[in-house]
């Protein structure tokens, strides 16, 4: 990794105020989380307890406010009858104090530190745990802001690393601090060490308590009204957004909608046939489906994908927001899909394979490996240029051909005898080698195009079943990290498969040797470089 020379301009540009404020947390010392963390982590429990208490006191509350008669029958009556008011209040006070004390001790014992090579978190009172994420294995960083946390100006920072259950979560941090730490950790992971001295702090009289409260309220209002993506974070031409009407249409034209329609049809037929009990059984589920659509729609609003100096940034959400940054070189496979119902509108979806995944769900409740929930061909081209930055205009033409063509083109297709195994899609089934990647096209009803960067390929398998041997066909499987993309191609000519195997094996070795896509920010120089291995590869 290139090390910037003193006095040289910083590869990532001048630091923002959030990045400068976060620098003091990357000093290798242990730091504590946001003071509201105990409430935010146990907030759901408090809300549940409050709901339980209010439900038991509902008659007394109604009687207090509107003068309704005392109906009795709740636990408070027994307390009044036996004269246990003092003991009840004492018990409530003890429970509250115990919870506050436990939360405070838990907060004191929960700390994190960021060093030059790792992010560490330690927690626990009786049983201590410590998690460590190496910077060279970082696959992405997600900043998640639940609605309750946004009210307190807090956010959750989740660092995804290669490995099973290896993620490290900092919950919760100040909202501005989370953004600054995200950028700071990625700068450390990229090998860039800033040489600028910290700007002198402004001096002045401390603000009054009223001014501090007003400033806190104004910051929260600005946070809720601010756009999901800062206009200065990325050039406008690299930003991909999803119009609300297209988002709503993609949800309506989904498999779940087909299921709901089938249930409604069966319900109508059953009710007309003298089975009205079906309405009582199914109606609650149908009402719940409405909330399903509303929940997915609101969570997907303000969706944006942009290219930043730190990598590809994906953000979404209206009330609860989430944005994840994927550094370069972390994409192992890409798949462009088109469901049948989307074809008249020219809509597509993009999914990816990465070595690490955040635990938070993506937009529309889909897995976080869904890079583009719905977009047109122009959106697909932009997103692919972000996740595969080495692609050129030649690649764009090949990808467009793989998405829309019915066959008989530059792709190496299946022979006519494959019609016995692929009666509808044998003409669309095919592969094409381009510079640094292999394209796999398949599907007639549900179109699919998989892009596998050869530098990320782990192994290639060529196999034949009994029918394949009889027809002279073969199936190729490209092994990458686990994910929703399964790069494989069946019903291909056996001889073409052998040539593909030899070509991919040779080119994958050369591509992995020459690959530098996992390096970013710093420009390579001839006199100051050190070797950094791709994430997930042991030294």
TrEMBL record:
<keyword id="KW-0472">Membrane</keyword>
<feature type="domain" description="YdbS-like PH">
    <location>
        <begin position="107"/>
        <end position="173"/>
    </location>
</feature>
<feature type="domain" description="YdbS-like PH">
    <location>
        <begin position="426"/>
        <end position="503"/>
    </location>
</feature>
<dbReference type="Pfam" id="PF03703">
    <property type="entry name" value="bPH_2"/>
</dbReference>
<feature type="transmembrane region" description="Helical">
    <location>
        <begin position="275"/>
        <end position="294"/>
    </location>
</feature>
<feature type="domain" description="YdbS-like PH">
    <location>
        <begin position="302"/>
        <end position="369"/>
    </location>
</feature>
<dbReference type="InterPro" id="IPR005182">
    <property type="entry name" value="YdbS-like_PH"/>
</dbReference>
<feature type="transmembrane region" description="Helical">
    <location>
        <begin position="87"/>
        <end position="107"/>
    </location>
</feature>
<protein>
    <submittedName>
        <fullName>Putative membrane protein</fullName>
    </submittedName>
</protein>
<dbReference type="InterPro" id="IPR014529">
    <property type="entry name" value="UCP026631"/>
</dbReference>
<keyword id="KW-0812">Transmembrane</keyword>
<feature type="transmembrane region" description="Helical">
    <location>
        <begin position="247"/>
        <end position="269"/>
    </location>
</feature>
<keyword id="KW-1133">Transmembrane helix</keyword>
<feature type="compositionally biased region" description="Basic and acidic residues">
    <location>
        <begin position="515"/>
        <end position="524"/>
    </location>
</feature>
<feature type="region of interest" description="Disordered">
    <location>
        <begin position="515"/>
        <end position="539"/>
    </location>
</feature>
